Amino acid sequence: MVRKPTIDFSRNETLVAIVVVLFVAMTAIVDHNFLSLPTLFDLLRGAIVMGIFAIGVLLVLISGGIDVSFTAIAAFAMYSTTSLLVHFKLDIPWPFVFLLSVAIGAGLGLLNALFIAGFRLPTLIVTLGTLSIIRGFLLTFIGSQLISNLPANLRVFSRLFMIRGTTADGSFYSLPWAFAALVIVVAVTWFLLYRTMLGRMIFALGGSLESARRIGINVQATQVFVYAFVGGISGLAGIIHAAMARVANPFDIVGLELSVIAAVVLGGARLSGGYGTITGALLGVALITLINNSLILLGIPSTWQMVVIGMLILLGTGIPAYQTKRAARRAG
Amino acid sequence: MQTPTEARQTSSDNSVLLRLLRADNSRLAVITIVIFVIMTLLSPERFLSAGNLSSMAFQFPEFAILSLAMMLVMLTGGIDLSVVGTANLSAIIAALLLAALAGTDATGGFAIAAILLAIIVAIMVGLSAGLLNGVAIGAFGLPPILATLGTGLVFTGLGVALTGGSAVIGFPDDFAALGNSAIFGLPVPLLIFALLAVAMTFMLDRTKYGLRVQLFGTNPLAARFAGINDLALTIRTYVISGGLASVAGLVIMSRANSAKADYGSSYLLLSILICVLGGINPYGGFGRVSGLVLAVLSLQFLSSGLNMLQVSNFATELIWGALLLLVMTTNGLRLRRKGRGSASTS
């Protein structure tokens, strides 16, 4: 494919990038303190967990599926990991805590894979079912109480900062090391999607399941990988959420699923599968985070926040959809 | 529709029981009865008590009506994530109107007139919300899941903005009758649901529109080549769905005697679950109201029964999910035996 040097305005990524820039510009005009390091780091910190989720959702969408259970997986992995550590007073370093949570997440992802690849059921229905099962199991059998005294090693992690300092006018800013997790997830997923055979298989699956099968791709094995990988990523996002919030709340996270999917689709990933970019997904997350944090600065009351996000989803997906429809009609 | 003929072809050598099990929704009917019997055996004097039966009959109609709204769009291969937002927005606007026109003290003819006006306004709001969905999906080509996700946020957001996030209260006493009274021992919400379910069955089985919905859901391209106006069909479907959602909103409002933007937030996934459990194909084309009714009843028996056994709500959620996967797995195995093509729609 030849890359066009001009900006392609029909791409969602371009549209979202333009909206992000406009939004930042407008907020900066209204509030002069907006363009500053503390704001930037606040926004970055706010986007870590949603960004990690978005990468997982992107992978599932590219493979032609949809996953609504990832928030339940994250909450389950996060809460069961912390309660294991607290209950048995395990004193293991934080990298192993993270590994445990990732492993629990991947295990739950395999549960999705069992029904999707094993019984070949539609992905939306399976993940809807596992969402109820995982959440119900967590709250019934593992616990529904807040754990506020996190293991000491997790607290150590939450105090690790990549960058910290004070601006000239004395306001404090910092970026936790948790941000590196997002960077690593992005890098690994990028390598996986664009530099490995497995990545090509995932794209092929989303393009056409039947064609993928006929050219000899092991569809089941690829699906098992996708759902286990996404489960693992969700486990990571969950434990990072707990570490940053400094509390493990089993009721947290669940409920985010539709906004994460919306962010990824705003960034151009197709629900029909086979297409999506990491840049787009991250831009979508940037836009949603930006709106969540700065509508008030623009003088829009917080009660109108949901309306604005809803309109943005309608416009952001409506304009490209309408262009595609018109192009299809012109083509005959 | 397709299963009975197939059952006739393949099961000539099978017993009557097996043949029954292959008929439409029969597996779900058996599951529903089994749940009912188990719950009755586990706590006979309480589960079968008049109090419990009537409380169940008051509880399920609101989400059953929402499921009807979800079912219709699913038959066209779409989905409506805005049903709860539509229901709440309709209820909030009706509530604001009702509270402003006639307070709690209003009685007699004036109160009735105000209530009727509020009901009409609520349904108009629901129909307009559906129109917006239909236009976004049919005319602008947005995928249904995104269009209704966006409009759902807008509707809920408008509800929050109109009320500041708090509940609207202060209606005439007569309004509570809609959700809380009974005629000849039958709860009014149940009667409303029964009426709508019968109307929906008639519409799907006996009208041109119903046939077109199923054709379009089975194969949109073939339907277009068969001369079906897909834009008009899509708009009409979402408008009806919005209207149904607003009726559910009114029932919830009457039962709670208030309207709030976050009422019934768990009903969205529940209504999808009910439709899928009831055998409605989420990719469109196939599904029956009788399946939906069975799914609603089985979930209500489960949750009331478990509630009596002091099982937590969270465990009920777990069991609902497990039931969904169980039914889908057994259906899927049957589908897979018929051929690989039909099962690989994911």
TrEMBL record, chain A:
CDD domains cross-referenced by the UniProt entry: TM_PBP1_transp_AraH_like
Membrane-crossing residue ranges in chain numbering: 12-31, 43-61, 68-88, 94-117, 124-147, 172-193, 224-247, 253-271, 278-298, 304-322
The keyword Transmembrane belongs to this UniProt entry's keyword annotation: yes
Keywords on record: Cell inner membrane, Cell membrane, Membrane, Transmembrane, Transmembrane helix, Transport
Subcellular location: Cell membrane
Membrane topology type: Multi-pass membrane protein
Protein name: ABC transporter permease
Annotated source species: Dongia soli
Automatic annotation (TrEMBL), chain B:
Source superkingdom: Bacteria
InterPro entries: ABC_transp_permease (IPR001851)
Compartments, as annotated in UniProt: Cell membrane
Keyword terms of this UniProt record: Cell inner membrane, Cell membrane, Membrane, Transmembrane, Transmembrane helix, Transport
Transmembrane segments: 28-44, 83-104, 110-133, 145-171, 183-204, 233-253, 265-284
Signal peptide: none
UniProt entry tagged with the keyword Ubl conjugation: no
Pfam families with a match to the protein in the record: BPD_transp_2 (PF02653)
Record's bilayer topology term: Multi-pass membrane protein
Coiled-coil residues: none
Protein name: ABC transporter permease
